[in-house]
Specification:
Elements lengths: L2 E4 L11 H14 L5 E5 L11 E3 L9 H11 L3 E5 L7 H10 L2 E4 L2 E2 L3 E4 L4 H9 L13 E2 L1 H7 L11 H11 L8
Parallel strand pairs: 1-2, 1-4, 2-3, 5-8
Antiparallel strand pairs: 4-7, 5-6
Helix pairs in contact: 2-4
Length: 183
């Protein structure tokens, strides 16, 4: 199975490119688990440095749903989708989620952008895109792994989304300022 790292966001809340900050670390964790790790970029965006990159079809809306669709089309089968804003992700968590094929809950929210997506969901995704409904939550079709199960199994904050300078600062306080350089 391939992993597809979504890098097409604009990083507005972060104020700096999350791809530049986190991609190397996320790809390194994924490379130990998946056949290939491929970046998925917005149409017209820059390809990722040192990572095979595919591009979303041209679209007017905003949302990760476009990257999920591009990844599933490219994979021509099931695929693991992973947002670039999971810089604390580990090989162990990725292996577990790949094997479980379910969506984990973290901080009270399902995490569909760190999960296996079935190729069979592509028609529903395309239907939502056509209807201009870009939310991924209604597309979650599997049992969710409870946050308590995840926290009991994995230490730290491996499914912490880092989207703002404050969240990056919190991660640096917890793991040290050089955590992005360490693997």
């Amino acid at each position: 199975m391939n992993a597809y790292v979504l890098i097409g966001g604009r990083s507005r809340r972060m104020g700096a490119s999350k791809t530049e900050l986190f991609l190397e670390r996320v790809v390194a964790a994924g490379a130990a688990v998946f056949d290939r790790v491929i970046a998925v970029q917005r149409d017209g965006g820059e390809p990722a440095a040192n990572v095979e990159t595919i591009f979303e079809e041209k679209h007017e809306g905003d949302g990760a749903i476009f990257g999920v669709a591009a990844a599933l089309r490219h994979a021509n089968g099931d695929a693991f989708l992973l947002a670039v804003d999971y810089p604390l992700i580990t090989r162990e968590v990725l292996e577990f989620l790949r094997d479980e094929r379910r969506v984990a809950e973290w901080n009270g929210q399902p995490q569909p952008l760190c999960a296996v997506w079935s190729a069979a969901s592509l028609p529903r995704i395309e239907g939502r895109i056509a209807a201009r409904r870009y939310d991924l939550q209604p597309l979650i079709e599997r049992d969710i792994i409870a946050e308590g199960v995840m926290r009991a199994r994995f230490r730290g904050e491996p499914l912490m989304n880092v989207n703002t300078p404050e969240e990056l600062e919190a991660a640096e306080k917890r793991y040290g300022e050089g955590f992005l350089a360490s693997r």
